Amino acid sequence: MGEFELIDRFFAALGATRRDVTQGVGDDAAIMQVPAGHELVTCVDTLVEGRHFPMDADAYDIGWRALAVNLSDLAAMGAVPAWAMLALTLPELDEEWVDGFARGLGKLAAQFGVALVGGDTTRGPMTLSVSAMGFVPTGTALRRSGARPGDLVYVTGWPGDAAAGLALLQGRLEGHGANRGALEHKFRHPEPRVAFGQGLRGVASACVDVSDGLAQDLGRIAAASGVGAVIRARELPLSRALYTLAGENAARGYALAGGDDYELLFTAPPSARAQIGALAAKVGAPACHCIGEIVAGKGVRVLAERGEIPLPRGWDHFSPT
Amino acid sequence: MGEFELIDRFFAALGATRRDVTQGVGDDAAIMQVPAGHELVTCVDTLVEGRHFPMDADAYDIGWRALAVNLSDLAAMGAVPAWAMLALTLPELDEEWVDGFARGLGKLAAQFGVALVGGDTTRGPMTLSVSAMGFVPTGTALRRSGARPGDLVYVTGWPGDAAAGLALLQGRLEGHGANRGALEHKFRHPEPRVAFGQGLRGVASACVDVSDGLAQDLGRIAAASGVGAVIRARELPLSRALYTLAGENAARGYALAGGDDYELLFTAPPSARAQIGALAAKVGAPACHCIGEIVAGKGVRVLAERGEIPLPRGWDHFSPT
């Protein structure tokens, strides 16, 4: 079977879901319509086997993750996701694997109305690269650079859960039962905060998604905005599952430095506090917590009851870790 | 050095070249403006070391090719290229390699005014995936599906040169001097026919770029349009370099089945003949030759002086070749 039939067979059903797709998979390029008065928002993320997911991960979970990390980037811009392209490099044509992958990717795509409009399948070491596209009303996208001293720092959901889930899967953390299941699920099926991100347009002053670790990603807002940031360790939201399995100290470590959360981390002036509280309820997202504030200066500091906690390093793909 | 600094350092200069880029590399996603009355055109292509380019290829040439194959897809749609994103997976951080790669990609990007708006650099087996974006006035994109019986079939440039250039580089073909140099150059630095493709809007009835071999790619037009096609072998344009080094028979084989040409292969009604002749002169593209016609039925046949030539297979990435 040729590469083109492969793409056609497994991914065709993921393509024909939107009226704004003039031409999907099947020509030299795809043709889409960006609505008038909107800007195009695009991103790309690559997953490498053994680096971004365990070697024995389910194909379904990998497909889900490959799209989820990109939708999370769009969410952090406040964008409406619309289309995706897939560059799939596989060592061999394992149809069962491709079927599972397509189902995982397709499940999340359907959840957010995303159409797969292009793809390229090649033979080689397993590498999955997805580019996602969406749009925002012109001028309303959330950027990293708008945080100002006095702004409060918020995070959605329960940071650290996904990193603890991975640690459980890899045997670096022990645990059983419902708590274990909950944390593993958070790693395996991250939920991009798409509706929450759109709700933050006109409210948040800066936003990123937490992919490399909360402290490190907050550092990106600080650097882009030319400000500093303080995290109050006691305000960090810790899920009961994480707290129970890991204990408070380790749980804080996962929350601060663990990657793969794909929650939204954002800043907003204190006047927006009520609006933000209402937003979580409105969009049905998980809780959203204020964890610190933006200050003059630079860098990120974490303050605990007994002084400053040394800043943990997040996951840097080219660092020797 | 972290992955983000790597991207920033080598690729920052390729990003800030267009006014329609609201946010380039450096946030969770890029933000761009598609002009009013235009549709977005997007594509993605992956290059795998040893499969899409020789293991010892220059980094500069790889960078050029990674973008060229995508701009060629946009050209085949008649699109104006605008933006690109790069997913770069590398086994190690070889700064000299990345520098050469960025220069090759940057040279071609500058030639066509393309801004690099996003990227993701990860560690792993070498894989390069570029997605390119451009636009066309709404409804004017060239598709594969518009060929009708009676249309003539055209190809730009000198098909087969690039495949012969690769054969020379790999020692499968022998040759020396200027002819060798000319063919190797055609393989190493394919020139996407961007201006020609735009000139074909409203003129061509169907269009693809020649990436997998002329006969196979014409088969894609035939299949998408529900028609057959005939190539007249004696009308195949053969460059003097190819003819001289390979001889007529092998030269025709390279022209019909050799990949990597990145010329445009298109169909148009006979009434457009003069317009097409003028187009090549107008955009400064290489010669454009009529090589056959569209017929009722299906499939592609190649007719020579003494009957039909068995159809060569193009390069299929998942076929055992």
List keywords for this structure.
seven-stranded mixed β-sheet; 60s Ribosomal Protein L30, Chain: A; disordered C terminus; homodimer; Phosphoribosyl-aminoimidazole Synthetase, Chain A, domain 2; four-stranded mixed β-sheet
Short overview:
The structure is a homodimer of 321-residue chains. Chain A is α+β, with helices and mostly antiparallel strands.
Protein described:
- Chain A is α+β, with helices and mostly antiparallel strands.
- The first copy, chain A, has 2 domains: 135 residues, PurM-like, N-terminal domain (60s Ribosomal Protein L30, Chain: A), CATH 3.30.1330; 158 residues, PurM-like C-terminal domain (Phosphoribosyl-aminoimidazole Synthetase, Chain A, domain 2, Alpha-Beta Complex), CATH 3.90.650.10.
- Chain A is 35% helix and 26% strand.
- Chain A is built from 10 helices and 13 strands.
- The first copy, chain A, has a 7-stranded mixed sheet with strand order 8-10-7-11-9-12-13. Chain A has a 4-stranded mixed sheet with strand order 3-6-4-5.
- In chain A, helix 3 links the parallel strand 4 and strand 5.
- In chain A, helix 4 crosses helix 5.
- The longest helix of chain A is centred in the first third of the chain and has 18 residues.
- Chain A is globular, with a radius of gyration of 20 Å.
- The N and C termini of chain A lie far apart (41 Å).
- The C terminus of chain A is likely disordered.
- Chains A and B meet through strand 2, strand 3, helix 2, strand 4 and strand 5 of A and strand 2, strand 3, helix 2, strand 4 and strand 5 of B.
- Strand 3 of chain A pairs antiparallel with strand 2 of chain B.
